[in-house]
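[Discussion] Sanity-checking designs against the backbone

I'm trying to build intuition for which residues belong where. Below is a structure token string of 223 positions. I'd appreciate it if someone posts a full sequence so I can compare it with mine line by line.
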């Protein structure tokens, strides 16, 4: 019987220094974030590398030179809890992009469940291992524009169980509030809006019915 060897990694906290896990032959790049569990076969089909990275605040960073594109998806942007921090992040991004460079920004514009508790759950299996991630919205403070969120990861095998839990806060945005923030950073212009399907052939519209939204922002060209 052939036994397939596997490799992987788990990111347990948010104070590490490290870069993306890149699979160049598959054109896949995985950005690290707390609670993320990555597994893959240890063979020539999954050759991987970690490019050079640096540690910095999202609202205060510089890179050497400029980039053609950058991305920040799945609500990472909402960890910036103040308007000033969010604006500073966008200004740093604009400074880091070449003229015409693209920034892909994805976030929920509306609270997961308005003013009541809500949750999302995902489960994946591989052989005898089952991993379940549950994200629960505990409360929403509309005046302060803050959500309290809890995430729980449970990995179960034949005889072992690993349970990780973390609580954090996110900033909320209505479409109008987010548009006002974008208007305060004139060096970035809004090109397109998409929904959770990430389908480039089906652009969406920014309205009060939109939930998870992907914004395509571009650094303006010189006049």
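Best answer:
Here's mine. Compare freely.
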């Amino acid at each position: 019987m052939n036994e397939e060897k596997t490799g992987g990694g788990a990111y347990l906290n948010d104070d590490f220094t490290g870069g993306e896990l890149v699979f160049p032959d598959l054109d896949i790049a995985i950005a690290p974030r707390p609670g993320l569990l990555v597994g893959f076969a240890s063979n020539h089909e999954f050759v991987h590398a970690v490019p050079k990275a640096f540690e910095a605040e999202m609202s205060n960073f510089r890179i050497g030179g400029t980039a053609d594109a950058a991305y920040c998806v799945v609500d990472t942007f909402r960890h910036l809890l103040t308007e000033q921090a969010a604006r500073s992040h966008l200004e740093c991004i604009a400074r880091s992009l070449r003229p015409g460079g693209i920034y892909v920004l994805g976030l929920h514009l509306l609270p997961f469940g308005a003013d009541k508790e809500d949750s999302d759950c995902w489960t994946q299996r591989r052989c005898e291992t089952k991993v379940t991630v549950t994200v629960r919205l505990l409360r929403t403070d509309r005046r302060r524009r803050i959500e309290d969120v809890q995430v729980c990861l449970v990995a179960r095998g034949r005889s072992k169980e690993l349970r990780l839990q973390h609580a954090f806060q996110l900033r909320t945005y209505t479409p109008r509030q987010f548009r006002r923030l974008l208007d305060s950073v004139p060096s970035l212009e809004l090109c397109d809006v998409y929904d959770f399907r990430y389908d480039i052939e089906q652009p969406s519209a920014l309205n009060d019915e939109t939930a998870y939204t992907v914004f395509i922002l571009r650094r303006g060209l010189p006049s």
